[in-house]
Amino acid sequence: MSPAIAVTGASGRIGGRIARRLSAAGLTPRLLGRDPKRLPLIEGSALAPPAAYGDGEAMRRACDGASTLFLVSAREAPERVSDHRTAVDSAVAAGVERIVYVSFLGAAPDATFTFARDHWHTEEHIRASGARHTFLRDSFYLSSLAQMAGADGVIRGPAGSGRVSAVAHDDIADAAVAVLLSDEHDGRTHDLTGPAALTLAEAAAELSRFAGREIVYRPETRDEAYASRAGYGAPSWELAGWVTSYEAVATGELSAVSDAVPRLTGRPATSFGDFLRGAPEAYAHLLP
Known about the structure:
This protein has 288 residues and is an alpha/beta fold. Helix content is 40%, strand content 15%.
């Protein structure tokens, strides 16, 4: 298998981890991004020409000569699916034979979490492209679970008593590299989750243990959730994404616990407690 792997999102928390791991494995990952100045300096890597997902010609140039594209989803935006389609089509036109796409747990056309619908539409387009493909459907990030608590020590949202199987960035990266370095995952979808699904009340209790102060979860109704976030001045589509992320927890759509991380990496998935133990910066805003 050709080692020419183009990695998008290399300036972010997933793509950067992937690029470093591929370089450590002796490969020369090609780093894609809109602004080369934001891309990390990783020994053994190569920089592709600047490219935004929605710029078809730039994406074609950036992917030229690569056999595999590791595709991290673009930031949430109304045009995200359209940009993904352009990126996929351009990569295939450039000769990319395989796409490994970071999707989302429970991606479906009618998913409660509105942003998860974008992932489903992107998956469908990749399937139709004719490229070999693998989908990595990750759950919420453990770091995001910690950030749900405000500085006042309260997690607010319409999640009810639902559970979420949040996963660590490092676990996603290790699983993704195992897929990228193998030819045995074509046509497969791997759900990447933590080792357990927590209620937000349980997450708050764990945060309390590490922060040394009481962190609580206060359920909201849908109307209360929109009202408590109205002051951020976010557009309606973004507010809907924020609120429905909690509602997807309430419906149980994010409660599945998969064995994919240990199966792909050969080690247990990271628990919320172990994550907090190794990442005190994740709850620094909660410290007394």
